[in-house]
Amino acid sequence: MAELLIIRHGQASFGAANYDALSALGHQQATLIGDTLRASGWTPDRVISGTLTRQVDTLAAMGFAIDPERHAGFNEYDFQDLLRARSNTKISSDDRKAHFRLLRETVHAWMRGEIPDPTETWDSFTTRVEAARQFAISSDAKRVLVVSSGGVIGQMVSHTLGGPVENMMTLNLQIKNTAITRFVYSDRGFHLHEFNSTPHFANGEGAKMISYS
Fold it and tell me: CA–CA distance from 74 to each of 25, 56, 150 (Å)?
């Protein structure tokens, strides 16, 4: 069996003009998960990220000496675009509960086809996520590491397990920055093995580094 580890990017710059940049904490989280994987004896033989800055920089900070690949299918959906298309609503960075509530409601509306003329439809999003998954497992590599984002990871887990499409958003909102989601796969199938795991945050200073944005 081969393994596909998908890591959510480190903390981005929530509330800043450029959300896509890693925060100082995000860089620390990325370095720590890389160190933790190496200490456990797990090193990849193929590494991939989306093309977003926070994904590329997370993979770089993990410190694996392998030439990285990039695939835009691992990029997050554009929630700011969805908000504009839905109601021209802006997210306030001052109220995180309101932010995540509005995000959940907007993505559910997107799933139902209720947002007029989004840049990316729900069907287009799920199609590109599946194409990215197929790309990641298409080689002979036995340990594949991917850095992506919460919506992509939530969709991949939801699709693998089956059930209502709304499960994607329930999973999306649980995923911690630099958490591990692990799949195992072979010619016989593709299976979820581990979800949203953060062994690097289990003790000491790491326990203070948990974030969700």
Answer: 22, 11, 10
Mean pLDDT comparison of 76-85, 111-120, 200-209, highest-scoring range? 111-120
**Whether pTM exceeds 0.85:** yes
- What does the alpha-carbon distance between residue 191 and residue 184 come to, in Å, rounded to a whole number? 5
Render the burial of 157-175: b for 16+ CB within 10 Å, e for the rest. Answer: bbbeeeeeeebbbebbbeb
Give the sheet arrangement for strand 189-197, strand by strand: 69-70, 46-49, 143-148, 2-8, 180-186, 189-197
How would you classify the pairing of strands 46-49 and 180-186?
Answer: unpaired
Condensed to tens digits (0 to 9), the pLDDT of residues 127-172 reads 999 999 999 999 999 999 999 999 999 999 999 999 899 999 999 9
Domains and CATH numbers, the chain: 2-76+136-206 (3.40.50.1240), 78-119 (no CATH)
CA atoms of 42 and 37, how far apart (whole Å): 5
